[in-house]
Every structure is written in structure tokens, then in C-alpha cells.
Design brief:
Elements (H helix, E strand, L loop, with lengths): L8 E4 L12 H7 L4 E4 L10 H14 L2 E6 L19 H17 L4 E3 L11 H21 L3 E4 L13 H10 L8 E6 H6 L4 H8 L3 E6 L15 H10 L6 E3 L7 H5 L1
Parallel strand pairs: 1-2, 1-8, 2-3, 3-4, 4-5, 5-6, 6-7, 7-8
Helix pairs in contact: 1-2, 3-4, 7-8
């Protein structure tokens, strides 16, 4: 069992309970003992139909779980996309998705919205993409602020064209945003990505804990259940709690066999 000292844990239903259709996963998480969940954007397009949004909302409500974090649309992730915030030509798509994220999140009282930065594109300069991302993420932070929520920005691993790999990469993006939205723009500290990208996770947490809006974990190597690898997850989570992080911690891992077998 995971230590009680870790505090509230939530299930990422985009990686856990994949044996079930998406609209059955909140209930699956509740049956397994979770009171909170998080999700990547649960639809195939940036703008879902009313029926799709209603079905997901009803599934979360009926399961009696709290949606603590929701990702925005990230493009075609199986094909390698990792967000559209910095992708020229997709500005309207980002705006449409932002409105949909805020609407769904507000209906479910979600207060954390994660927007992946986006891969570098061959037909645009890095400077132009960074300028676009700053504008788009400013809009997202403004919308989140009005909703009493925060925007999350995270480093990733395993995506060579994705430019945010370290905590400092994320902080540089946050620091480009206007001061007026700074309270609504935070770092998603995915300890798996930081670890496999070579960061000294303990030192990072000690340095940036005040700017962390959400935390996710998986063991390494393999990105599987806690206890299947060599990452110091217990030490890192305990440090976070000692430093004052009181929010939920997302279990965002790929089960080695099935979700329930891994939880057992």
C-alpha cells in the first residue's frame, strides 16, 4: 500500500482504468477507493459536442469523485503531438479549447488546467513559437483566474521536439507571463519526467516548491506503479509535504498489467 503520509492521491484516468470506456473510468476509480481523479483531455477534438461534454460531466458526478486536474487538448498524442499552445496556425483551435476546458472544469469545480506547450515546428522559429505561447498562455491564465483556478505548465520527457524538459525551462515560460496573471500560472511538477530528464528532483523541489500547482508521479525506469522502479518517490513526496505542498498528487503511470492488479 502507498504510505498514508503521502496525503491525497488522485487517479489519472487517462492512464489508469483503461480497461474501461472513458465514461466508466470515474466509477472504476471510485470503486477502487479513490475520491479524486484527473484526466488528459477526454475527447478526440479540441471542441467536443454538447453530448460528449455532458456524458463526461455526468460520469464524474455520478461516480462521486472530484476532478482535481484537467488537461487541455494536446493534438494527436499517439502521433507525437504534445500540445498546441505554441503551434502557429492553431490559434482559434486553442481559443475554442480554452473555452471548453473552462466551461467543463467550472461545471465540475476543477481548479487546475494543464496546457501542454507544444512541439517545435519546422516551419516556425523558436522565438515566434515562444511569443505565440506567451500570448496563448496569458489568455489561459486570465480565463483561469476569472474561474478561480490555475494554469499548469509542465516539462516532458520522451518527446524530442518538446522544448520544456527541466524545471528551469518551465520557470522561464512562467516568468514571461504578465505579472497580473502570475498567481494563476504554476508549474506541474511531474516527478517522473524531471527524474528521467536528469534533474536532481530533491534539489528542484526544495528550490521551486512555492511555484508548484500540481504534482504527478510514476516510478522509473518504465513509468509504472510506485515500487516497481528505483525512484525515491517516498522521499520526494515526504519532502513536498514538509515544504508545505498540500494539494493532491496524481498517479500518472502505466500499469504493468492491469490497474487493479497494480493497485493491489
Amino acid at each position: 500500500m502507498l504510505p498514508a503520509s503521502w496525503g491525497q492521491l488522485d487517479a489519472n484516468i487517462s492512464m489508469l482504468f483503461t480497461e474501461l470506456p472513458m465514461t466508466e473510468r470515474p466509477a472504476g476509480a471510485r470503486a477502487a477507493g479513490f475520491t479524486a481523479i484527473e484526466a488528459w483531455w477526454p475527447f478526440a477534438s479540441a471542441l467536443p459536442s454538447d453530448a460528449q461534454a455532458t456524458a463526461f460531466e455526468r460520469a464524474v458526478r455520478d461516480a462521486g469523485v472530484e476532478l482535481v486536474a484537467l488537461n487541455g487538448f494536446a493534438g494527436d498524442m499517439p502521433a507525437g503531438d504534445r500540445g498546441i499552445a505554441s503551434w502557429p496556425g492553431r490559434e482559434q483551435e486553442f481559443a475554442d479549447n480554452l473555452a471548453a476546458v473552462i466551461e467543463l472544469g467550472t461545471a465540475l469545480h476543477c481548479r487546475r488546467f494543464n496546457f501542454l506547450y507544444g512541439n517545435r515546428q519546422d516551419d516556425a522559429t523558436a522565438a515566434a513559437q515562444d511569443e505565440l505561447a506567451t500570448s496563448q498562455l496569458t489568455s489561459a491564465a486570465e480565463a483561469a483566474q476569472r474561474a478561480g483556478a490555475v494554469v499548469l505548465i509542465e516539462p516532458l520527457s520522451g518527446a524530442p521536439a518538446y522544448p520544456l524538459r527541466t524545471a528551469d525551462d518551465v520557470l522561464a515560460v512562467l516568468d514571461r507571463l504578465p505579472a497580473a496573471v502570475a498567481p494563476a500560472a504554476t508549474m506541474l511538477a511531474d516527478l517522473y519526467h524531471l527524474n528521467v530528464n536528469g534533474e536532481d528532483v530533491r534539489a528542484v523541489l526544495d528550490r521551486v516548491h512555492g511555484r508548484i500547482g500540481h504534482v504527478q508521479i510514476a516510478d522509473a525506469p518504465g513509468r509504472h506503479e510506485p515500487g516497481t522502479g528505483t525512484a525515491d518517490l517516498d522521499g520526494w513526496v515526504r519532502l513536498l509535504r514538509e515544504l508545505g505542498y498540500a494539494g493532491p498528487i496524481g498517479l500518472e503511470y502505466a500499469p504493468m498489467t492491469s490497474t487493479l492488479a497494480g493497485l493491489r
